[in-house]
Amino acid sequence: MAQLKPVYLISGSDRPKIRVALERLRNHFEEGAVEVLGADDHPAEDAVAACNALGLFGGERRLVIVENVDAWKAPEAKVVSEYLKTPPPETVLALVGTEMKKDSALAKACAKLGEVLLFDAPRKRDLPSWVAKQFEQHGASADRDACRLVVEMVGDEPERLRSEIEKLATWAGGATVTEDGVRLLASTSAETTVFMLTDAWGKRDVGAALAAVESLLERSGSRELPRLTGLLANHVGRVRACQALADDGTTAREAAGKLKMHPFAAEKAFAQAANYSPDELAHALVRLAELDLALKGNSRLSGELELERALVEVTPAPL
Fold this sequence. Notes:
There is one protein chain. By secondary structure, this protein is of the alpha/beta class. It has helices at 15-26, 44-54, 74-83, 105-113, 127-137, 144-154, 158-172, 179-185, 192-202, 206-220, 225-247, 252-259, 263-273, 278-298, 303-314; strands at 7-11, 34-38, 62-67, 91-96, 115-118, 141-142, 176-177. The strands form two sheets. The chain has a five-stranded parallel sheet, with helices on both faces. The protein has a two-stranded parallel ribbon with strand order 6-7. Helix 6 (144-154) runs parallel beside helix 8 (179-185) and helix 11 (225-247) runs antiparallel to helix 14 (278-298). It is elongated. It starts with 6 loop residues before the first strand and ends in a 5-residue tail after the last helix. The mean pLDDT is 86.
């Protein structure tokens, strides 16, 4: 048991990493030698009692996992600190949270004789690089555009991303993952339709825009129409703002800071702005405002038909 410490505090927003850390810890113990408690229902005294009781089994390795320790307060940290003065040599206590800080009383108590593992999910702007590293860990590689597309299609939830990356890496079989492979295999999230729609609109591809809407309606029904309309209108507004900045000589990277956009999103918005005239963007915003009113009861037509008609108008074919 020398390789394990008497206590581990595992916390952070990156749930997949926390799960992996727990799995590695559990692998040191027999299935029946693990007890799981919830901090919401069990104070630190209960966890300590479980550790001490398990330690009476005569040399058998035991693990006590306490989940959601964010619910514990300062008194629980004192209990854990007292317990760690003389912990049973064959028992390990694993405390799992989501927002624990290194300078918290519980973390300080655990750090003295144990280990504190904090796994925070990557920031949105760093996700493409994070995806590339995940591919490397699975023995695969992916080009930059493929990593960005994975984030666009799957979303920013690390656990869902990790699952899709594992699937893509297995499919690639050591070859480089490309955009075509991602489009072929990656499972789309509810937000994917929005990206597909805005990309199609930006390319003036009305067929692809209508297909994106059809995909959303098949999955979520007409209740998503007002939200989708609002998201598209916001996107058109950002493209119009980027167009104005570009006319003033502002670069996409500079615009990203001014508009609080991801640099990649700003680059895409600048490219789309070049496909439309100022009058077309102004008309699109007015037409989408009319669509919003129609969806709120100002039309006798179905919401699906109103959206399709509006898309045809605001996504003209290339000149």
